[in-house]
Design goal:
The protein is built from five helices and seven strands; from the N terminus they run H-E-H-E-H-E-E-E-E-H-E-H. It is of the alpha/beta class. Helix 2 runs parallel beside helix 3.
Amino acid sequence: MRIKTPAKALLLIITFVIVGLSTFLYVPKQFDSSSFFFDKNALQQVINLIRTSKRQIFVEMYSFTHGDVIRELEAKKRAGLDVRVIVDDNPENEALAKARFDVRFEGTPRMFHRKFAIVDEQWIWIGSTNWTYSGFGKNAEVDLLMSSPDHAYNLVRQFEQDWAKAKRRPK
């Protein structure tokens, strides 16, 4: 490519700087754009993801009983973030009705077996791990953390549809 004028050269340099800078600022340093986590390595990464959130955390989880993760979400809710969780309507999840963030229970006859989280409409955590002590400590599991605003947008739309259908429990 041949640049004929200094103005065009300057415009090209500015474009590269803006694109490069926005890419650099887009991905937090503590995460790659995508990473796999296996077995016991997942818990600390979920906690790190929650701790770095700035605006919102949406979770859909079949089974969610891990106290450390619940406390981290409660802290983010106290800090003013939009924290919402949908879980399967099963007895194991009943304690979440008392959590200090918004929880709803999926109550259709089907098994609500989803396991994902969306953070700040950018980060997606998705995989096989239930957020339980067994899921994070005993089971053979695999999860993926990825940065993708496009995919996050689609998951947020699904989350909002599920949220509208899910049931509340009295606290």
